Amino acid sequence: NAEYMGSRQLWWGHRIPAYYAHVAGVTPGQDDAAHWIVARTEAEALAQAAARFGRPGSDIRLEQDEDVLDTWFSSGLFPFSVFNWPEQTDDLRAFYPTTLLETGKDILFFWVARMVMMGLQLTDQLPFEYVFLHSMVRDAHGRKMSKSLGNVIDPVAVIEGITLEELHETVRKGNLPEAEVAVAIEGQKADFPDGIPPCGADALRFGLCAYVSAGRDINLDVDRIVGYRNFMQKTWQATRFAFSIFGEGFVPAPAEATIVDARRTTADKWILSRLSAAIEATTSALEAYQFAAATQAVYAFWWDELCAYYIELAKPIAYGVDAHAPGSAEHTAAVDARDSLRQVLYTCLETGLRLLHPFAPFITEELWQRLPRRPSDTAPSVMLAAYPVVVPEWRAPEIEAAFAVYQSVLHAGRSLRAQYLKPSDKPELFVKAKTAAATELIKPFELYLRVLCNASSSTILGAADGNPPAECGVSVVNAEYDIAINLRGLVDAAKEIAKLRKQLATKQQSLDGLVSRMEKPTYAKVPEEQREKDAAKRVETEGEIAALNASIAMFESLVGGAAAAAGPAQ
Asked: Which of 67, 154, 426, 393 lies closest to 257 in space, CA to CA?
C-alpha cells in the first residue's frame, strides 16, 4: 500500500476517455482488458463495443473511468484550452499563439515541452515565442529555503514586518521534530536578530527584480530589501516636496512644449538628458529581459541624479525670485529660471513615475494620481498611461560632460568640508581654474557649487586671477581645477597642526623604512614586480608628506595671521 500522490489528481482535470463495457449476459473473465474501450465520445465508444462483441447497443452499458489524466497533460493544453479550444472562438483567434511564457527551469520538460508538443500536434502552431526562466529564491547564504533550517522567508512577513518571536512561532507551529525546531530557531536568531522590518510590497517587488540576472538563483538578503524601502520613501518625499515648488494653480505645459524651451538652465538640460538616457537604458533592458539592469537604470535616475542633484539645485532657484527687484533684468531671468524649473521637475517626476511603475506599482499609482495632468493627458491610471519613450532632443552629451566635471569639483569640495568643518559652517569657497577653457566650463556651475558645498560665497578664479587666500584648505581636483575653502575663524588651527604633525611623523617613519630597505645592496635581488610596487609606494608616500607639509604651513599661517591681527602682547 504505497502512498498515493494526491496532488496529481485534480477534480477539474481531464477525465480519462476510457469506458468499461458491461455486456448483457456476459460475465467478464479473469482478463477483462477486452471490455475497455478508448474513444473520443461515449457514442463512439458504444459503437466500438457493439462491433467488438457483436451485440446491439441496447445490450451494452458503458461506465467511464472516474480517474483523470496527469496534471501535466491538462496543463500542457493550457495555452489554448483557456480560449475554449477546440471551438474556434474570437479569443483563440486573437490571443493564440501567445508571446512569452515565464516559468522555472525545473519544469522545462514536465510542462514547457508538453505545451510545445501539444500545441504543435493539436493546433499546428507553437504556443509561445519565448520562455523566460525565473530565478530560484534562496536565503542570503545561498541555501535552499527549508523549514528545518529556519530560513524560510514568507513574502507577507517582508511586506508587513515580523518580530523575531513571531518568526519563532512560525517554526513552533509547524510539524518539525523538536530537535529541528531548536536548530531552526537558532538560524532565525542569526539571520534576523531584530526580526524583519515592514518593507512594503513595492520594495519587495523592486528588490526581486533587481536580483534577477540571466536565470541565476537569488540569494535574498532582507537588508537589501530594506534599502529599497528607503528608495521608495525617497521617491515619496521627492514628489511631495515638488508640490511646494509647483505652488498653487500650477498647470503642466502641453507635452509638445517640453521638447525645447529656451529658458532652461544648465541643470534643466542636464536632468532631461539623463532622463532620456534612463528611458533608453530601462526600455532596452526590459526588451532584453534584463530586469536587474532595468531597475538599476531607474534607481540611478531617481536617487543619484534627480534627488541627489537636481532637486537640491532647485531650491535656490525656486525660492530666489524675491531676492531681485521686480522689473529688473535679474528678476525676469529668475522668474524664467523658476518657471522652467517647475516644468522640467514635473516632467521628470511624471515620466519617472511611469518609468518606475512596473517595478513599484502601488506607490507610483498613488503619487501619479496626485500630480496635476497635462491638458492632453486623459489616462485614468498610470497603468494605462503610455510607457516613456526616448526624446532625442533632450540628449545633451556636451552638457553631461561639463556636469561630470562639476561633479568631480563638487565631490572634492564636499570632502574638504568634511575633513575640516562642521555641517553648520558656511565658508567662503574658491575654485581655481588653470586654463581659459576650464574657466568658461565651470562658470555656469558656480551657483550649484555654492549651494551644494553650503558656502557663504563662491569665487571662480581664472588662470590670471591669482590663487585662493593663504588661509584656505585646498584640494587638487585634477590638472585643471583646485577647490579651496577659507578656514579662518572656522577651525582650531593649533589642534589641526598637532593632528597633522602626528600623521606626518607616521608617514615619514614609513617612508624612511622603505627608503632604507630600497638602498640596501641586497635589494637588487628583490623580484622586479616587488621593486615596482615599492617605487610606486615611495612616490605615493612622498606626495602625501608634501600635502601634509602644505596643510601644516597653511594652518601655521592661520595662527600667525591671528597673532598679527591681535597685535603685540602688552
From this structure: 393
Task: At 481, give phi and psi (nearest 5°).
Answer: -140, 140
CA–CA distance, 417 with 399 (Å, rounded to integer): 26
Task: Compute the C-alpha angle 76/77/80, nearest 5°.
Answer: 135
Which of 113-122, 171-180, 412-421 is predicted least confidently? 171-180
Q: Which residue pairs from 459-467 have beta carbons closer than 8 angstroms and sit at least 24 positions apart in sequence?
A: 459/428, 459/429, 459/430, 459/431, 460/431, 460/433, 461/430, 461/431, 461/432, 461/433, 462/433, 462/436, 463/433, 463/434, 463/435, 463/436, 463/439, 467/432
pLDDT of residue 255: 85
The whole-angstrom separation of Cα 538 and Cα 530 is 12
Global pTM exceeds 0.70: yes
Element (H, E) at 508: helix 493-518
Q: What is the DSSP string of 21-55?
A: EEETT----S--GGGEEE-SSHHHHHHHHHHHHT-
In this model, does residue 8 exceed pLDDT 70? no
Mean pLDDT of 238-250: 91
Grid coordinates of 76? 500542457
User: Are 110 and 104 contacting, i.e. CB atoms less than 8 angstroms apart?
Assistant: no
Nearest Cα residue to 137 out of 160, 162, 155: 155
Mean pLDDT over each residue of the chain, to the nearest integer: 88
pLDDT, tens digit, 9 for 90 and up, residues 378-403? 999 999 999 999 999 999 999 999 99
Closest CA to 273 of 249, 314, 306: 306
- In the chain, what is the greatest distance between 2 CA atoms, to the nearest angstrom? 139
Cell reading at 37 = 474501450
Q: Return the beta strands (E) in 374-424 as ranges.
A: none
Q: How far apart are CA 139 and CA 154, in angstroms?
A: 12
pLDDT at 555: 81
Distance (Å) of CA 75 to CA 54, 113, 119, 168, 204: 39, 11, 11, 37, 29
Question: Smallest Cα–Cα separation from 265: which of 411, 460, 451?
Answer: 451
Given CA atoms 207, 209, 211, 217 in this order, what sign does their dihedral have? positive
